[in-house]
Batch of 2 targets.
Target 1
Amino acid sequence: MAEIQEKGGKGGKGKPKKQSTKIDMTPMVDLGFLLLTFFILTTTFAKPQTMEINMPVKAKNQEEQSELKASNALTLLLGANDKIYWYAGLPDEPTAPGVQVTDYSAGGLRKILLDRKSNPDLVVLIKPMDTDKETGRYKNMVDVLDEMNITDTRKYAIVDVDPRDEKLVEDAKAK
Amino acid sequence: MPKVKPKRARPSLDMTPMVDLAFLLVTFFMLISKFAPEEVVVVDTPSSISDIKLQESDILTITVDKNGRIFYGVEGQHTKRELIDKMAEKYNVSFTEAEKAKFSNMPSFGVPIASLKSLLNMSDDQMKKVNQPGIPADSLNNELGDWLMQTRYSNPKVRIAIKGDNDADVPTIKKVIKTLQDRKVNRFNLITDMENKPTI
């Protein structure tokens, strides 16, 4: 293997020369490693990770939709610049202390969700803002859904932004 | 006194096991590798702790890039072949056999159906360079919805995955989700990168 053959020094004698049965395999091995490198680099092993979401079936009329109790509601408004405006209760009168701003860090959204973990009926309403003034990013949506998984929050829904919510955000920003 | 000549060992070692292993690995990688399909757009997906893997086959990918363009891709040559026939019929566009064959080999595309024919007539190099405007998904002209429905007719097992860029804007994503919901698709997947689960 990988040896350079040596010619026997003594020639011309009657004895037939014993030819070595070794072949130089260096080029083959080179090629082998080249292919190995190529395949290692081009293979894609990991299939993409996914998150499954189930959206609710659209209710045909208003009566089919269930009312949400103010004490169980938590609304997250996903705004621009990775900010979350959030409040507990209903948009007509958010329970004190009203609309607050937080972020996607562990001490922000996750803490809010964990603080409310004691309430098994908690429903988190995720509202990605898509108005002209405030537009969230897709990353924010996924991050929030991810936080739901991390904190094991079971009930959540992606909802459209209400005009009342927009006003609340405007007020909170003006403050 | 004759010098004690140390016996010169030839500096060669037996590399057979190493080479055996190398070829074993080559064979392994050759058999296992499935080349990543060439992407029309580069999409940087957000990360999540979810560790569900996407199913092996029959995946319909709706890609949303950072400029809000929508691209459509479905796996399976057979499905795509049927799909283009159905779409051609619905939109009254005719495609030649060569165009259909090319379509069934394309991983994804992002043009309205009216310009699909000219896209299919481009060479591969041109196709890479051309700026695809994305598939219309507005409520008035919702081609995305039609592609979706026709794909589901062609292959009912198809699983829908949304692959969005970090910076894709919410209105576009909402438009896509609304399109899905309007067609009674309430279960779909979001493609994300892996992330370690934080301890709480």
Target 2
Amino acid sequence: MGSVYIIPQWFFSYDIILNLIFGVITLLVSLYAFKVYKLSYQIKSKIFGFSFFLISIAYFIRAIFIFILLSKLSASKALSLTSFTFWFESSLYLHIFFFLLGLITLVYMTIGSKGFKLYSLLSLLTFSPFIFAQDTLHLFNLLSALLLVYIFYYYLTTYLNVRNLRQFFIMLAFGLIFLSSIGFMLSVRYSLSFVVGDLLNLIAYVIIMINLIVIRKK
Amino acid sequence: MNKKRERLQVIYDILEAIKEKNGRIKPTHILYKSNLSHQMMDEYLKELIASDFVIESKSKDGKTYSLTQKGFDYINKYKLITDFIESFGLK
């Protein structure tokens, strides 16, 4: 397993709420993307919707598992180490799988290729290092940061080509999600960086949500 | 607007041309209204029929095209579709 996040104790319940908020926002974006696909048959909307759907599953899993873990801890003060490890590792591995698959899908969408070969290659390259990794969490944070910096670059170039306000905010949101991944990376040493990471994520997803509301209201 | 029309814009122009003719239009009118080559128009029409946006009817006067409910939905929600696609970099 290797390193673990150091999360301040007072932040646990906030972390559950924040992950639920991220899950709801990403789910709404994905449903909207599927709706756009149904209306326009624009394949990128479908892939984008699928990527956000996977990311929303990742957030819901994390929120639900942390909630279960905390409930078990408060119900029986002496939770067995085996039980704790089971809940902790299950949530972590499932979160890692769905979150990374969501990011891979998003990267695949930005490349604009229609072949399944590239998608399977990206998945293979991302997941195979976990077989040999001694520090799962550190590898996850590193891979997330790499995929996110690529996604941010894509949105930066898209914005520079068009230079409109809505694309600026989407570029900003992905920039903040990338920075939050750096925050999570540092949180194996500094507990407060986990809080900063979650707050950056919150700002990013609120920006995405506002963007979605503006589109709907037009 | 890009010099080269986007695919979604072309689809909108074709559907709008059909709508303007009260839902029944001949291919020559679509060609004139959509400003496409004959080959491109045929490809778009095939796609629109396959996607259930347009219905093709054949009579002794030749082929005519009309909109389905999906076609009308596309026209009504075109702005929403393009706004979403542009904002999230899905072009």
